[in-house]
Amino acid sequence: MMSHDRLFSRSGGARQGRPQAFFFSGGIVFLSVLALFLLSGARTASGAVRLEAPEVVFPGQPFVVTLIADEPVEKVTVQWNGEAIDLPVEVRQTGAGEARYAAALLGVGLSQKPGRVPLRVDAVVSGAAHSSRRELKVRDKEYPVQRLTVKKRYVDVARADLDRHEKERARVKQALALRTGMRFWDLPLHRPVPGGVSSVFGLRRFFNDQPRKPHSGIDLRGAQGSPIQACAEGVVVLAENHFFAGNSVYIDHGEGVVSMYFHMSRLDVRAGERVKKGQVIGAVGSTGRVTGPHLHFGLSLQGVFVDPMPLFE
Ligand SMILES: [Zn+2]
Description:
Residues 214-308 form the M23ase beta-sheet core domain. By secondary structure, this protein is mainly beta. 9% of the residues lie in helices and 42% in strands. The protein has two helices and 25 strands. The longest helix has 18 residues, at 159-176.
């Protein structure tokens, strides 16, 4: 028996109940991040279940959906962007007793046009199936143009290098297709290097005046050889050299959240290795298609590349 929106009845724009920040380390800062996402609270009359999701989202930007319940929750499934993701449910101790908690980190594709996009959350709460359907408003966001000059071989790519790139792309595709049914990630993300941003996410790029794909991550400043740290706990799925990305590490953080680190001078981890948040995974370098040493940091949410900046502490 489905009772649509009975448990998750909409209750206006104001946030309600316990601050979201309670559940995250560095919570105070994270609360302000969530506020940027224009969260709206929703819960039953009794306050037993609360679903939080933003009302407005932007192309290329991440957002968080959380479900918090006082009652036992067996299963939570989020449907977004044509995909259903099962979320693990955690039991957490609170001042008032126990709370069940599930969270998803979701993204809006860079090419998403403004309009309304459906978000659906299904949950089994105290043995009964419930469903909430919402429509998130996608607003327009402009990304600037960037022109770069790189070595000719990275623009007029030789057949052998293209073949190599295709093989690497297939491996990356597999890594980004992972939907590990655990949540290793937590917010805020740890900044992998302390340096400032030299190239923002989403730049519409021209290499040697030829149009290429938009910038799928951020470039962070860092001296050659300076340490790079994992943005969150996870499992290394790829640690290898790629034609464009140079020495690269991909970390699976569960629920389809994968972080990536490019152009490294050194790899300190291997595929299959479990890493902690903040663990050194290698060093800044200038391998692959670059103009100089820096860290390219990328974040894929269920295969959708997003701007990681709003998720840092
Ligand atoms: Zn980059």
